[in-house]
Write a structure and sequence with these properties.
The chain is 46% helix and 22% strand. The chain is of the alpha+beta class and 224 residues long. The protein folds into two domains: 14-99, 434 Repressor (Amino-terminal Domain); 146-222, Immunoglobulins (Immunoglobulin-like, Sandwich). It has a five-stranded mixed sheet with strand order 2-8-7-4-5, with no helix packed on it. β4 and β5 form a beta hairpin. The radius of gyration is 38 Å and the shape is rod-shaped. The protein starts with 13 loop residues before the first helix and ends with a strand.
C-alpha cells in the first residue's frame, strides 16, 4: 500500500489570523490604529496573543470586534477565539505559577484598569495645573515684604526730622503717610520726614498691583 505524504497545516492563533488578514490588505498596523482611533500597541498585543499586556476583557473584546470588522472578519467569531485562547492562556499560567487568591486578582485588575490609569493621570495633571495657578494667584494677592530698618521701634526724640529707611520687593508701590515715595531698583528706600512737636504717627505702606497692602507703623514723640 502506498502512502502519500501530506503536510499538516498549523492551526493559526487569533493573533496570527488578525496579522494575516491585515498583511493581506497591505495595511500597516499604524494605519489600522489611526482608522480605529486607538494606539497601535493594543493591536500589536492582539496580534502577538499577548494577553498579559492587554487590558481587561471588556475593553480588549471591544477593541478586537472593531479590529475584526476593519479586517473584514466576523467580529463574533473573533470574540469566541479570544475567549477560548484567553482561557487556555489562563489555565497554562495557573499550572505554571499557581492560582492567586481571588482578592489579589481583583486588586490587580482594579489597579491595571486602563480607565483608572487614564483618569489617575488626568487627575494628577489637573492637580498640578491647579497648584500652579493657585500659587500664581497667591503670589499676586499676598502682601509684599516690607521691613523698616530705621526707626526700628517707636522712639522719643528732640529733633524735628527723622529718616525713614527700609526695604521691600521690586516693582512695589510705596507710600509714607499716604504720599508716594520712590524705592531703589533692589527695593530699598530712604525718605526724610518732617515732624511736629508731640506725637507723630508714621505709616508706611507697600503694595503690588492687585495685592493686599503691607503696613508698618511707628510712633515718634518729639519733646524738648
Amino acid at each position: 500500500m502506498d502512502f502519500t505524504k501530506k503536510n499538516i497545516e498549523k492551526i493559526k492563533t487569533l493573533g496570527e489570523i488578525l496579522r494575516s488578514h491585515r498583511e493581506g490588505m497591505r495595511m500597516p498596523i499604524e494605519k489600522a490604529g489611526r482608522l480605529l482611533q486607538i494606539s497601535p500597541r493594543y493591536l500589536q498585543w492582539l496580534e502577538n496573543d499577548d494577553f498579559a499586556s492587554l487590558p481587561p476583557d471588556v475593553y480588549s473584546v471591544n477593541i478586537l470586534r472593531n479590529y475584526a470588522e476593519l479586517l473584514q472578519i466576523s467580529s463574533s467569531t473573533a470574540a469566541n477565539y479570544y475567549y477560548k485562547e484567553k482561557k487556555r492562556y489562563a489555565n497554562t499560567r495557573q499550572r505554571i505559577f499557581g492560582e492567586k487568591h481571588p482578592i489579589i486578582n481583583n486588586i490587580l485588575n482594579f489597579f491595571l484598569d486602563p480607565r483608572l490609569i487614564k483618569y489617575s493621570a488626568m487627575t494628577v495633571i489637573l492637580a498640578l495645573v491647579l497648584t500652579y495657578l493657585g500659587w500664581g494667584v497667591y503670589h499676586i494677592i499676598v502682601p509684599p515684604i516690607l521691613v523698616i530698618d530705621e526707626p526700628a521701634t517707636n522712639i522719643l526724640t528732640d529733633k524735628y526730622k527723622v529718616v525713614i529707611s527700609g526695604h521691600t520687593e521690586k516693582e512695589v508701590s510705596l507710600a509714607l503717610n499716604g504720599r508716594p515715595i520712590l524705592s531703589q531698583v533692589d527695593g530699598g528706600f530712604t525718605q526724610e520726614l518732617s515732624l511736629h512737636k508731640g506725637v507723630n504717627e508714621v505709616r508706611i505702606t507697600a503694595e503690588r498691583k492687585h495685592s493686599r497692602t503691607a503696613v508698618a507703623e511707628r510712633t515718634i514723640i518729639v519733646g524738648e
